[in-house]
Specification:
The chain is an alpha+beta fold. The protein contains 6 helices and 14 strands.
C-alpha cells in the first residue's frame, strides 16, 4: 500500500522541479535588459566616448605645506575664500621669533666688522698722530743741537781746550739724539701706516659676518609662509597653534582661469586626440557647455576619486586630458565639481 504512494510523490516532485525551472528560465530571458540590449544594439563604430571630469584651475591646485622641518603655526593670516597676491604672508611658524633674534645679532656683528675695517683704514686717532709728530719735531731739534755741540767740541779738542773724554761725551749725546729721532719717526709711521694684512683680516671678518647673516635670514624666511601665486584660499587644513601635518597648511588656486580635466578610461585613449569637441554637462551648470581637448597626459594611473560605477571602482585605469571650455561658457568657481563629458570621436 505504501509503495505506490511513495512512487506517486517522487514523480510529482520531479515534475514540479522541472516546471519551475522552465518558468524561471523563460521569465529571465524575457525580462533581461542586458539580453535585450545585446540583441537590439546596432552594429557600427562608436561616435562618442563618455568620461568623468572635474573642474580644475589652469595653473592647478597649490597645496602649501611649509618647510621640511615642520613646525607649529603661530600666526594664520588668511581665511577661506580670501584673495591674496603673490608674496603675501599666509602664516608664520613659532620658530620665526627665535630666528628673527638671530638675524638681529648677525646684523650687529656685520656692522661691527665693517666698523673695524674703517678703523684699520683710518689708522690711529688724529690726536695720537699729532702728538707723535710733535715728538718727532722735538727729537729732530735735539739732534741738531747735539750736532752743533759736537762740532764745537771737535774744534776745542783740536786747540787742546777740552779733553778727549769731553769730546767723546758730546759724540755719545749726538748718537743718542739721532737714535731717539729714528725711534720717534718709526712710531709715527706705525700710527699712520695701514698694513695690507690687517685690511685682509678685517675684510675676511666682514665676509664671514655677511655669510652668517644670509644663513640666519634664510632660516627665518622658511618660517614665513608666503603665497606662491595670485589666487584664492580654498581650504584651510591646519589651525592656529597646531603642528603642520601631511596635508599641509592650506590649498589655494587661481580660480579666474578654469578648465575641465577629463578622466578617460585607458582603453579609450587610442581614439582620443587634441582638437576633439567635448560636450560638458553637470548639475552645477545651468546649461551644457562645449569645449575641446587641448592636451592629453602621457601617464596612466588609478582613479583617486570615488565613483558609483561598481565595475570601474577606485582601481580604474585612467588617462587625464585637459579641456579648454569655449569662452561663451563660464565655469563656476567650484574646484573639483563633477562633470560628465561626451567626447566626439569624428572630430579632427
Amino acid at each position: 500500500m505504501l509503495r505506490p504512494y511513495k512512487r506517486y510523490c517522487a514523480v510529482a516532485t520531479v515534475a514540479l522541479v522541472i516546471g519551475l525551472s522552465v518558468f524561471l528560465l523563460s521569465g529571465h530571458n524575457a525580462g533581461s535588459p542586458v539580453a535585450a540590449a545585446q540583441t537590439t544594439r546596432p552594429a557600427g563604430p562608436a561616435t562618442t566616448v563618455v568620461a568623468r571630469g572635474r573642474i580644475e584651475p589652469v595653473e592647478r591646485l597649490h597645496v602649501i605645506s611649509g618647510p621640511s622641518h615642520g613646525g607649529t603655526i603661530a600666526e594664520l593670516r588668511v581665511k577661506e575664500g580670501q584673495r591674496v597676491q603673490r608674496g603675501d604672508i599666509l602664516a608664520i611658524l613659532d620658530t620665526y621669533y627665535t630666528r628673527a633674534a638671530s638675524v638681529t645679532v648677525a646684523e650687529k656683528s656685520l656692522a661691527l666688522a665693517e666698523l673695524e675695517l674703517r678703523q684699520i683704514r683710518w689708522g690711529a686717532k688724529e690726536s695720537d698722530i699729532e702728538a707723535q709728530k710733535a715728538l718727532v719735531t722735538m727729537r729732530a731739534a735735539e739732534l741738531k743741537r747735539a750736532e752743533r755741540q759736537m762740532e764745537r767740541s771737535r774744534a776745542l779738542v783740536s786747540r787742546d781746550i777740552i779733553s778727549d773724554d769731553t769730546n767723546e761725551l758730546r759724540l755719545l749725546e749726538m748718537h743718542r739724539a739721532r737714535e731717539s729721532l729714528r725711534q720717534a719717526e718709526a712710531n709715527l709711521r706705525a700710527l699712520t701706516e695701514v698694513r695690507a694684512i690687517d685690511v685682509q683680516i678685517a675684510m675676511a671678518s666682514i665676509e664671514l659676518a655677511a655669510a652668517e647673516l644670509a644663513h640666519v635670514t634664510a632660516e627665518r624666511e622658511q618660517d614665513i609662509i608666503r603665497a606662491p601665486i595670485d589666487g584664492t584660499i580654498l581650504t584651510l587644513t591646519a589651525r592656529l597653534g597646531a603642528m603642520i601635518h601631511a596635508e599641509g597648511i592650506l590649498s589655494m588656486a587661481n580660480i579666474d582661469n578654469l578648465m575641465v580635466v577629463a578622466e578617460i578610461d585607458a582603453t579609450d585613449t587610442p581614439h582620443i586626440h587634441p582638437g576633439q569637441s567635448v560636450t560638458i554637462t553637470s548639475d552645477v551648470l545651468p546649461a551644457p557647455a562645449t569645449g575641446k581637448i587641448v592636451r592629453i597626459a602621457n601617464r596612466v594611473h588609478r582613479s583617486e576619486r570615488p565613483t558609483t560605477d561598481v565595475l570601474a571602482g577606485r582601481d580604474a585605469r585612467i588617462v587625464e586630458a585637459e579641456i579648454e571650455v569655449d569662452p561663451t561658457n563660464a565655469l563656476p568657481p567650484l574646484v573639483g565639481a563633477e562633470m560628465t563629458l561626451h567626447i566626439q570621436l569624428n572630430d579632427s
